[in-house]
Amino acid sequence: MRIDVVTIFPEYLAPLRTALLGKAIERGLLDIAVHDLRDWTYDVHRAVDDSPYGGGPGMVMKPQVWGEALDAVCPSDARLIVPTPAGRPFTQRMAHEFAAERSLVFACGRYEGIDQRVIADAERRMRVDEVSIGDYVLVGGEVAVLTMVEAVARLLPGVLGNPVSAEQDSFSDGLLEGPSYTRPEVWRELPVPDVLRSGNHAAVDRWRRDRALERTYRRRPDLLAALPTDTLDKHDRAV
Ligand code: SAM
């Protein structure tokens, strides 16, 4: 997969080359390029923003600069992702959808965001998603891009040491994952649940499913409500 990021702070994206993602790049599973939006400015101040039509506080990112940047960076099959608090919420399902693409281009906004005509213009020749990573407002799109790229990249074949981890993560079956434990058996007088040391795989699976159901019920009842009714068996409903 090829990922391009356009930003006025390229250094903000340095963590993309660290740890698991860095290894994926080294192994040729992922190709990431970060572009400085100011490379497409022509004035002496390298300005990327201007005051908003209609008045109001803050500045808006200029369409000419973004237009030229995206013309230069987006391949013909690109899917353009524009982080914005006003976008559709980013989910694990969306991460899977993005992971199936050949090319993703991320456009990092700053100030009050990007002139809306940049999105309208891009939509004339490519798929564009305006995406929010949560109901809060960040200073810029860079942290949102780090979040989305990490969620997408770990789903690419070969990136995770054990692909089963992604299959068993929270959200893959519509539920939150239950609690995890490792050695020692007792720590600060807190024991690991007996069933996990029983060697009885069926009992362990049932215990994990029950804890996942309980946790989801308590913390994210909206996820349980969204599950198709036929995904819960008789035992699930009793939990
Ligand atoms: N005026 C915008 C609004 O109220 O919708 C907020 C702009 S915000 C200060 C600047 C930039 O940060 C946005 O263009 C976007 O790139 C990024 N951003 C802020 N919060 C975000 C969120 N929850 N999800 C994704 N991107 C976000």
TrEMBL record:
GO MF entry, a single one: tRNA (guanine(37)-N1)-methyltransferase activity
Entries under CDD domains matching the protein: TrmD-like (cd18080)
One GO BP annotation of this record: tRNA N1-guanine methylation
Cellular localisation: Cytoplasm
An example Gene Ontology CC term for this record: cytosol
Pfam family, one: tRNA_m1G_MT
Binding site for S-adenosyl-L-methionine: 109, 133-138
Alphabetic keyword roster: Cytoplasm, Methyltransferase, S-adenosyl-L-methionine, Transferase, tRNA processing
Highest taxon of the lineage: Bacteria
SUPFAM superfamilies recorded: alpha/beta knot
Leader sequence residues: none
Residue ranges constituting the tRNA methyltransferase TRMD/TRM10-type domain according to the UniProt record: 1-224
EC number: 2.1.1.228
Transmembrane annotation, as ranges: none
Enzyme class: transferase
Reactions that this protein is recorded to catalyse: guanosine(37) in tRNA + S-adenosyl-L-methionine = N(1)-methylguanosine(37) in tRNA + S-adenosyl-L-homocysteine + H(+)
Tagged with keyword Transferase: yes
Entry's family note: Belongs to the RNA methyltransferase TrmD family.
Xref: PANTHER family: TRNA (GUANINE-N(1)-)-METHYLTRANSFERASE
UniProt xrefs under NCBIfam families: PRK00026.1, trmD
Subunit field text: Homodimer.
Function: Specifically methylates guanosine-37 in various tRNAs.
Protein name per Swiss-Prot or TrEMBL: tRNA (guanine-N(1)-)-methyltransferase
Organism: Tamaricihabitans halophyticus
Underlying gene: trmD
